[in-house]
Design goal:
The complex is a heterodimer of chains A (244) and B (490). Chain A folds into two domains: 120 residues, Rossmann fold (3-Layer(aba) Sandwich); 96 residues, Arc Repressor Mutant, subunit A (Orthogonal Bundle), CATH 1.10.10. Chain A contains eight helices and twelve strands. In chain A, the strands form three sheets. Chain A has a five-stranded parallel sheet with strand order 2-1-3-4-5, sandwiched between helices. In chain A, strands 6-7-8-9 form a four-stranded antiparallel sheet, with helices on one face. Chain A has a three-stranded antiparallel sheet with strand order 10-12-11. In chain A, helix 2 runs parallel beside helix 3 and helix 6 crosses helix 8. The longest helix of chain A has 17 residues. Chain B folds into four domains: 114 residues, no CATH class; 111 residues, Beta-Lactamase (2-Layer Sandwich), CATH 3.30.450; 73 residues; 155 residues, Heat Shock Protein 90 (2-Layer Sandwich). The C terminus of chain B is likely disordered. Chain B has 490 residues and is of the alpha+beta class. Chain B is rod-shaped and about 150 Å long. In chain B, the strands form three sheets. Chain B has a five-stranded antiparallel sheet with strand order 2-1-5-4-3, sandwiched between helices. In chain B, strands 7-9-10-12-11 form a five-stranded mixed sheet. A two-stranded antiparallel ribbon of chain B has the order 6-8. Classes of the chains: A alpha/beta (244), B alpha+beta (490). At the A-B interface, helix 1, helix 5 and helix 8 of A face helix 7, helix 8, strand 6, helix 9 and helix 10 of B.
Chain lengths: 244, 490
């Protein structure tokens, strides 16, 4: 259960969906406000501050991406989750670039949504708090200061780039990380299109940290977007993407 | 010489002879001497040759020479010639007359030929104007042939179009023109019977015979038929091009509509599904539910989620259909991926058994995980869908030297031989498929497109195994070099 103070602004032009989400999210312990479109959402955000914003990407009037960008300007600390309907286009990447923290694709199960909401909430609250120098995820333990990694208490040797990549992913556990973001952070701002670099490093990392590299537990592929580091022992971490 | 020609020849001789007699009478009465009559006779011969042919003019020349000899040279009223100079003059007259006659008739013949050619060109021009005015869709059949008959007065005409294998005829043929036309096409040679009134020409485009056209009763057949055949070839080709363009345009249009429709449907479905899922999830969260209520809420949620993923897949397939596929290659453990997908399908279709034959070692392939999963799902789902309940679907993974082959077979569903080549066509659905199961007709088309985009292939196994089984072979190249992939499959 999330704390009763967590407020969610649900922005969608479909009244039936807003109503169902409102009822269900209240039942799941959130305080819910509704907005019909981007304009109304921005008005609400000016009046109140919300912990979370659930923003539909396809809306009449100002589109979801623009609304997201302006929302980010208004409330820098709100967790913004975009609701997309297409899963083969660059909508997700554009949403993340516009400042969204995560996305869900319609139709989604309520549990999946609440897990995402809670994970984003936790990440946005951790932001600004003291950064730990030792992080844990499943069987993995990473020491950011000493640049060491253990898997089931056994040290795993990583190259400097592999370490930087894994450390960045583990620091952003649960968050979707676009290819471009990873390349620019690890390799430098002049990078962005060299997907093969990233893929080969992810492949090597998976061989070192995953039990079964073909069915990864930690480094999840987000189709057409990038990667997401998952902590298997976190109950709110989304399950591996199972496409039918 | 035809009868009409013979008559006009006789007429020309008669008129010429009358003119010679009249001139002789007038000159004789006027006592004009031999040296003065020569130019007068020469004038007459020239005049005669302007209207008549060489033969009649030559006869009139000889007749004139005879008259001069008989009436104007010494001794008079005798064929004898006393002075050699007179004989020489007569010979000179005959030679001059014949040369003039020959020249004049040659000039006249050429003039006639030019007139004829101009006339033929005029008619060809009018004919092509008329044909151009026709709707390209009507450039076949009687409507197309009728102008030929009107402008060239042929008694019968036949056209064989190899593209449609249609034979069109107009008019009454005395010599079975239609059959001759078809025969000319089949033999690929023109038929220009000298003793026959029919002229048949093959229609040739870049050396290829595309049909034949036959004429009966065509004036100057051997010369005109070539031009007419060339004209026909142009127009028939125009019709073919038009027909192909219309079919292609219709295909594109259909594909665009269909893609747009699928897209819209998928979008329109997803919001209500999201509402159902949110409501079903909320029901569970809202209050303590009895066991059965809980189960029903779960069923609603699971089925709506399944409908959602089916919709997503449909949308994804429609997109892959209309766009170029660019695989994002990764190293994938093929064996566990197949085990996973087979497990999912086994759970879903309880009435069919899915047996997977694995290789001894785990097999990695370089492929786009999302696309490969879509393809394998499609093949295994098809195998389940088109087999009898209780039957077995087998999946074999065969490592080869340069490729990995995945064979998906079922039994109880044969594919008729005429459909085998067509099942990979977009929107094609077999007769049985249309009757028994639902589908978009895109699945196999897109699956093959994905295979090709990976530098691989997807085919139906050449010969069905026994018991009416059908086997699809997915071949993925076994290369470590990612740069070798062909990224364009469209």
């Amino acid at each position: 259960m999330s704390s009763p103070q967590s407020s969610v602004l649900v922005v969608d032009d479909e009244p039936a969906l807003r109503k169902a989400l409102r009822t269900s999210l209240i039942a799941s312990g959130f305080a819910v406000e509704e907005a019909r479109d981007g304009e109304e959402a921005l008005l609400s955000a000016r009046r109140h501050s919300f912990d979370l914003v659930l923003l539909d990407i396809n809306m009449p009037g100002i589109n979801g991406i623009d609304a997201c960008r302006r929302m980010r300007g208004l409330s820098p600390h709100a967790g913004i989750i975009m609701v997309t309907v297409r899963d083969f286009e660059d909508d997700k990447v554009r949403a993340l670039e516009a400042g969204a923290d995560d996305y869900v694709t319609k139709p989604f199960k309520l549990r999946e949504l609440t897990a995402r909401l809670r994970a984003v909430l936790r990440r946005t609250r951790v932001d600004g708090a003291v950064q730990l120098s030792v992080l844990h995820a499943g069987k993995l333990k990473i020491d950011l200061d000493r640049r060491l990694l253990w898997r089931s208490d056994e040290e795993v040797h990583l190259s400097p780039t592999e370490f930087d990549l894994l450390a960045f992913m583990m620091k952003n556990v649960g968050a979707p990380l676009t290819h471009v973001k990873l390349l620019r952070t690890i390799w430098g701002p002049e990078y962005g299109g060299e997907l093969e670099y990233l893929r080969s490093y992810v492949r090597m990392l998976r061989r070192k940290i995953e039990d079964d590299p073909a069915r990864p537990e930690y480094i999840q592929t987000e189709p057409w977007v990038g990667y997401r580091f998952r902590n298997p022992s976190d109950p709110d971490s989304p399950p591996a993407d199972e496409e039918d | 010489m035809p009868i009409s020609g013979r008559r006009s020849f006789a007429k020309r001789i008669a008129i010429g002879s009358f003119a010679v007699a009249l001139l002789t009478l007038l000159c004789y009465r006027a006592h004009i001497d031999f040296s003065s009559v020569i130019p007068l006779y020469t004038l007459l011969v020239v005049l005669q040759s302007l209207t008549g042919d060489f033969k009649s003019s030559a006869i009139i020349s000889v007749l004139s020479a005879g008259c001069m000899d008989f009436f104007f040279t010494e001794p008079l009223f005798s064929w004898r010639i006393a002075h050699p100079m007179n004989a020489l003059a007569l010979v000179a007259f005959i030679v001059t007359a014949l040369v003039i006659t020959s020249l004049v008739s040659r000039v006249r013949k050429e003039a006639t030929s030019v007139t004829l050619q101009k006339d033929r060109l005029d008619r060809l021009y009018q004919l092509s104007q008329q044909l151009l005015a026709l709707d390209p869709e009507e450039t076949h059949g009687e409507k197309f042939l009728e102008p030929f008959q009107r402008f060239f007065g042929v008694t019968a005409i036949s056209l064989f179009d190899a593209d449609t294998a249609e034979l069109h005829s107009l008019g009454n043929s005395q010599c079975n023109l239609a059959e001759r036309t078809r025969e000319a096409y089949l033999r690929g040679v023109d038929l220009n019977g000298i003793d026959s009134p029919a002229q048949v020409r093959c229609l040739r485009v870049r050396g290829r015979v595309t049909g034949a056209i036959g004429f009966e009763g065509l004036e100057d057949g051997s010369e005109t038929s070539g031009s007419l055949a060339a004209l026909t070839t142009t127009f028939v080709e125009r019709t073919h091009a038009f027909r192909k363009a219309s079919v292609a345009a219709a295909d594109t249009q259909t594909a665009v509509y269909r893609s747009a429709l699928l897209d819209a449907l998928a979008h329109e479905f997803k919001t209500p599904l999201a509402t159902i899922l949110a409501a079903a999830g909320g029901l569970r969260e809202a209050g303590p539910l009895a066991m059965e209520q809980q189960e029903m809420a779960d069923t609603v949620e699971n089925e709506a989620a399944r409908l959602g993923s089916l919709t997503s897949r449909l949308l994804r397939t429609a997109r892959l259909d209309s766009e170029e596929i660019r695989p994002r290659i990764e190293l994938i453990d093929l064996t566990s991926l197949i085990a996973h997908i087979a497990g999912q399908h086994s759970a879903r279709s309880e009435e069919r058994r899915i047996v997977v034959t694995y290789p001894r070692e785990a097999l990695d392939v370089q492929a786009d995980p999302a696309l490969l999963r879509l393809t394998l799902n499609q093949l295994i789902e098809n195998a389940c869908k088109y087999s009898k309940p209780g039957s077995t679907v087998t999946v074999e993974i065969e490592p080869q030297t340069d490729a990995v082959v995945v064979k998906v077979s079922n039994n109880g569903s044969s594919i008729p031989s005429d459909e085998r080549s067509r099942i990979f066509e977009r929107f094609y659905r077999g007769a049985d498929a249309k009757r028994s199961t639902s589908g978009s007709g895109l699945g196999l088309f897109v699956a093959r497109k994905i295979a090709l985009a990976h530098g691989g292939a997807l085919d139906l196994e050449a010969r069905d195994r026994p018991n009416d089984s059908v086997t699809f072979c997915l071949k993925l190249p076994n290369t470590k070099d990612e740069a070798q992939y062909v990224l364009t499959a469209k």
